[in-house]
């Protein structure tokens, strides 16, 4: 039997109101929580349209019914544990003149027959719907919410996605490629051609079927890959953009090319006297996404030995140095667990590293503490005869060797059994023989908790435990395997049902992974937005996720990093000594500077405050303005990647961007620049770059300068290093402006 389709837009306001009540009735009756939330969403959509129609037609009875139904929707959402959404429904009703008390009185006026059955005419019959002035009230059934499972809107991660294969446009034969991400997508599609499945987008499937019959195009793409790798190897100074591009390409490499790239990253990090953050980050990301079959035990040992030594030598340096090194070491340890590595030398590697991690108990930086705890959990898995994940999987009846087995068998994984296995570890039932007692106790010193900020570290004492293997690490490794394969439906189920989901360490790890999904170009726009929405759910829904202040702060930090994808405006204050309550939107301050005659703008802030992200976002905005006006040219300069930036800095950056000498001379003589200079302190820079580069003088570059710097490295007389001056170094404070990026106030956090 085939029924005709009636678009919702064709329904009258009365019909839309009846439809909303039908959805609401069903949402209240159905047992499946996910289905109920979909029905609630449909209810809200129908009510919104009915409200618009009622206002347009001035039908007060419809508007009264909509207001009442909004309260009914709130009641149903409340019964499903969705208090924040319920409150929004109550507020909508309140704006229309209805209160919860009005609803309760109305509910009492209906007998049980009205409450037990859907009303006549609400599914499409016009005869009865038009006579309904006030819709039947839904009797909300009280039910006990299953607090062991978090409820996430079903539209978040509703389907799986093939990684590295999502791109809006794929090239025709011999067509110029847009960027390295598009090339990586093409090469990955060719690599998986033998295993086509339903998760592949139609555009990718069609492209693949065409290119499979075009050997010349396949060869062209492979040559492009080779050329990019060779160019990267020749480039001595690699900025963050170049590192990100080559890491994006790594999943499409064969084993030999991957190992060459791994050795290059290692050599550049190991041979540098100063810690190269971009190369170290590239090394960590390369290991994170590596095929376990591409990794050799000797390479992993060599990299871990170097990192372990560098970590211990860096003890007196900034938390950022230590964090980046421990993050990279965690990736190596994860890779060792993935490949079921055994026999890590206890005396030379295991004990020194575990002792160092033990010594970190007095650290006050929560981000560093999380990474230390994660590294320790990874370290416990490396020397075992049977990995922690394998012990979990043993309960499912599917013995899979190592974490790498989960990657290859993820589609056949009994996820419910896996989650049940996590419960055993959570309860300490995995077996005493599996607990490696490397450290007697770490967070047993109450005074250190007080010194580090008791409110947060009290949570860490429970969650970031060093005493035993924890379920949260195993759960996160399972999540990694699911993400790697694009199994987002199972990933959501694991996160929502893991028995350790209220553990702050687990939540930190989940948020970290959601942030990586949101910023990774291998995923399509919908998937990346789902990741951001998921972060919002964890932030807002205290009933399901607990009121973890540290996790909320972590999420806000992530949102700052994602500010180029959102409408969150960074805040500033006038200087380091200015009161924290004197905050203003940063974008407005920059616009004021750019329209003035001032020459230098110093942008400072704590590590991770969002300076580099803001600079990139600013560059994009300025380029959009340039396209419309052909005025001032924005030029982003990564200072650590420039050799001797105190001399001829703009020309050096343009040469890196492949401009010819004649083009550079032309730009110098005839164009005005806004030079955005990022990372002043990352290469121990001490020169006044304005004074040493002689800008805004006859025959020199015409430019305004924006310079970013970390607060902790500024010093007392820092302004002398940035104020404009002439060749005799006479500074002019009227040409200088500064701002400090600040964290959000409590009121702003609450408003958000």
Automatic annotation (TrEMBL):
Residues 211-562 form the Arm-like repeat domain. SUPFAM superfamilies: ARM repeat. It comes from the Eukaryota. This is Arm-like repeat domain-containing protein.
């Amino acid at each position: 039997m085939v029924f005709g389709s009636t678009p919702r837009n064709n329904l009258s306001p009365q019909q839309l109101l009846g439809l909303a009540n039908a959805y609401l009735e069903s949402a209240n009756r159905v047992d499946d929580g996910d289905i109920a939330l979909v029905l609630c969403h449909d209810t809200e959509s129908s009510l919104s349209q009915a409200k618009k129609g009622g206002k347009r037609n001035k039908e007060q009875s419809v508007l009264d019914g909509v207001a009442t139904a909004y309260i009914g929707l709130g009641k149903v959402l409340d019964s499903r544990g969705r208090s924040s959404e319920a409150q929004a429904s109550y507020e909508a009703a309140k704006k229309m003149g209805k209160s919860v008390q009005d609803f309760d009185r109305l509910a009492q006026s209906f007998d049980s027959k009205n409450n037990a059955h859907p009303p006549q005419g609400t599914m499409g019959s016009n005869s009865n719907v038009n006579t309904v002035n006030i819709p039947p009230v839904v009797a909300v059934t009280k039910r006990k919410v299953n607090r062991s499972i978090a409820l996430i809107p079903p539209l978040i991660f509703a389907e799986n996605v093939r990684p590295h294969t999502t791109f809006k446009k794929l090239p025709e034969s011999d067509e110029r490629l847009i960027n390295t991400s598009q090339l990586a997508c093409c090469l990955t599609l060719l690599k998986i051609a033998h295993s086509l499945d339903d998760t592949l987008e139609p555009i990718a499937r069609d492209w693949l079927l065409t290119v499979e019959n075009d050997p010349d195009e396949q060869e062209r793409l492979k040559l492009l890959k080779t050329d990019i790798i060779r160019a990267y190897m020749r480039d001595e100074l690699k900025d963050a953009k170049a590192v990100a591009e080559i890491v994006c390409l790594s999943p499409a490499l064969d084993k030999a090319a991957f190992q060459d790239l791994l050795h290059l990253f290692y050599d550049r990090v190991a041979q540098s006297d100063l810690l190269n953050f971009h190369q170290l980050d590239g090394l960590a990301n390369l290991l994170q996404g590596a095929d376990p079959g591409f990794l050799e035990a000797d390479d992993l040992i060599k990299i871990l030995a170097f990192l372990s030594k560098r970590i211990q030598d860096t003890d007196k340096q900034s938390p950022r140095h230590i964090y980046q090194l421990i993050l990279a070491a965690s990736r190596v340890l994860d890779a060792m667990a993935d490949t079921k590595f055994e026999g890590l030398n206890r005396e030379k590697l295991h004990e020194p590293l575990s002792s160092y991690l033990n010594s970190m108990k007095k650290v006050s930086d929560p981000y560093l503490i999380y990474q230390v705890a994660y590294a320790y959990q990874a370290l416990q898995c490396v020397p075992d005869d049977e990995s922690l994940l394998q012990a979990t999987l043993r309960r499912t009846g599917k013995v899979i060797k190592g974490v790498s087995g989960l990657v290859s068998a993820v589609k056949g994984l009994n996820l419910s059994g896996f989650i049940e296995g996590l419960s055993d570890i959570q309860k300490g039932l995995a077996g005493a023989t599996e607990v490696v007692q490397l450290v007697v106790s770490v967070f047993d010193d109450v005074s250190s908790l007080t010194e580090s900020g008791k409110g947060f570290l009290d949570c860490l004492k429970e969650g970031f435990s060093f005493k035993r293997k924890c379920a949260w690490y195993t759960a996160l490794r399972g999540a990694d395997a699911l993400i790697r394969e694009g199994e987002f439906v199972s990933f959501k189920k694991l996160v929502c049902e893991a028995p350790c989901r209220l553990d702050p360490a687990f939540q930190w790890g989940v948020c970290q992974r959601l942030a990586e999904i949101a910023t990774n170009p291998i995923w399509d726009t919908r998937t990346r937005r789902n990741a951001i929405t998921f972060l919002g759910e964890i932030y807002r829904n205290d009933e399901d996720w607990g009121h973890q202040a540290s996790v909320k702060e972590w999420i806000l930090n992530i949102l700052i990093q994602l500010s180029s994808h959102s409408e969150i405006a960074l805040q500033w204050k006038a200087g380091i000594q200015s009161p924290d309550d004197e905050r203003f939107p940063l974008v407005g301050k920059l616009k004021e500077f750019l329209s003035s005659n001032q020459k230098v703008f110093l942008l400072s802030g704590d590590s991770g405050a969002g300076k580099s992200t803001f600079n990139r976002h600013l560059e994009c905005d300025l380029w959009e303005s340039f396209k419309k006006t052909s005025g001032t040219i924005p030029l982003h300069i990564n200072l650590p990647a420039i050799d001797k930036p105190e001399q001829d800095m703009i020309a050096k950056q343009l040469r890196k961007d492949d401009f010819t000498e004649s083009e550079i001379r032309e730009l110098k003589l005839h164009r005005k620049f806004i030079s955005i200079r990022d990372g002043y302190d990352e290469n121990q820079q001490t020169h006044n770059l304005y004074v040493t580069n002689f800008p805004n003088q006859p025959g020199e570059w015409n430019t305004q300068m924006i310079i970013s710097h970390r607060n902790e490295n500024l010093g007392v007389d820092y302004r002398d290093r940035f104020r404009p001056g002439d060749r005799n170094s006479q500074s002019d404070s009227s040409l200088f402006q500064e701002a400090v990026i600040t964290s959000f106030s409590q009121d702003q956090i609450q408003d958000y």
